[in-house]
Design a protein that fits this description.
Blueprint (H helix, E strand, L loop, with lengths): L2 H9 L9 H12 L4 E4 L5 E5 L9 E6 L4 E7 L5 E6 L11 E5 L3 E7 L19 E3 L4 H7 L5 E4 L4 E2 L4 E4 L2 H16 L9 E6 L7 H10 L3 E9 L17 E4 L5 H13 L5 E4 L8 H5 L7 E8 L7 E4 H17 L9
Parallel strand pairs: 3-12, 3-13, 13-16, 14-15
Antiparallel strand pairs: 1-2, 2-12, 4-5, 4-9, 6-7, 6-9, 7-8, 10-11, 11-17, 14-16
Length: about 350
């Protein structure tokens, strides 16, 4: 399958942080095509293991998070509408007018309403989360029969192909990373690899990198590659952003292992794969931050897919960047040798 096909399939499944069951089951099924064993750990991470040809060779973990942003019902108003809180970093500016699904006793269609601009005294100020509500059309009495505080609310968006291999989808962050993992496994399917490959789809990244912390501490891999997204250039975003379609972004800095990162960069150059470079002096804000310091320390690299309009109703990226990410990782895994020292 292509990177685009994997992304579409993954994007169609729901997985709000802390409620990843739907996407979890799909990933387990997809990992099973390429891995010798697949398990789900206590926090909900999906872990697939593909045995290496040499039992003494260090394992390599490739990781991306499966969870996405969402909303949660916090109160039923006297009018039957739903107040909500955000799960993850939604920008309130993008929510008014959004179509949603409320996951109560049954799935309910709704829209996020806001005060009409005619009635707003200061139009320069965005609505706050507490001022917004989901309108499902029912009275309070009818709503209370179907909806409870704590029910999930998800955004209704569809995977859409634009042009020039650019796509728009609900949660390319980080289903794009998961698509890259699956393409990596597919590329390496018939290759003899000395190292055990451990592919991990983690939960609750959007709530503080929780799944990665648990997975890396439990697995204790010999080295790890985290896949995430970074800001893509758009008309109004140019600083600290990277063009979509010009290749994935490899990060350098103290959160990442120098030698391992250079190995990835060398493989990209050797195989004529376009990459972009990002310098980060501290916390990368990705699962790499937790993986690096797990157990006794894990040599960690980070590769990111540029995404425009991150944490909005539609994220936009290039499927070529996802494919290039997979190829760089596959070539890097093939380059690893038994007992190769990745210590500083």
């Amino acid at each position: 399958m292509t990177a685009a096909q994997y992304l579409k399939m993954l994007d169609e499944k729901l997985g709000v942080s802390g409620n990843e069951k739907d996407i979890q089951e799909l990933i387990k099924k997809l990992f099973s095509q390429f891995c010798d064993t697949v398990e789900i750990d206590g926090i909900g991470n999906v872990i697939g293991r593909r045995k290496g040809t040499n039992n003494t060779a260090p394992s390599i973990m490739i990781e991306a998070h499966m969870d996405e942003l969402g909303l949660m019902v916090s109160r039923i108003t006297d009018k039957g509408s739903l107040n909500f809180i955000t799960i993850g970093g939604f920008d309130p500016k993008v929510l008014p007018g959004t179509e949603v699904t409320v996951h109560g006793k049954e799935k309910l269609f709704g829209v996020i309403g806001a005060k009409p601009p005619h009635l707003v005294n200061d139009r320069s100020k965005a609505s706050k989360i507490g001022e917004l509500c989901v309108d499902i059309g029912y009275s309070k009495e009818e709503t209370e029969k179907l909806v409870s505080v704590g029910d999930m609310i998800t955004i209704n968006t569809n995977y859409t192909e634009l042009s020039n291999k650019i796509v728009a989808a609900r949660c390319i962050d980080d289903r794009g990373g998961l698509a890259a993992i699956l393409r990596t496994l597919e590329i390496l399917k018939d290759e003899k690899i000395e190292n055990e490959i451990i592919c991990v789809a983690t939960v609750q990244e959007e709530l503080g990198l929780r799944g990665a912390r648990v997975a890396a501490s439990h697995i204790m891999p010999g080295c790890a590659i985290a896949i995430d997204v970074c800001h893509g250039e758009s008309d109004d975003v140019r600083d600290d952003a990277f063009p979509c379609g010009n290749g994935p972004v490899v990060t350098v800095g103290p959160n990442l292992h120098t030698k391992f990162t250079k190995m990835m960069l060398n493989q990209a150059k050797k195989n004529s794969i376009d990459i972009q470079l990002e310098a980060c002096s501290g916390d990368t804000g990705t699962d790499a931050w937790e993986i690096q310091t797990a157990a006794c320390g894990v040599p960690t690299a980070l590769i990111s897919i540029p995404v425009r309009y991150m944490h909005s109703n539609y994220e936009v990226a290039s499927t070529d960047d996802i494919e290039a990410t997979a190829k760089i990782i596959a070539f890097t895994i093939k380059e690893l040798k038994d007992g190769e020292c990745l210590c500083f």
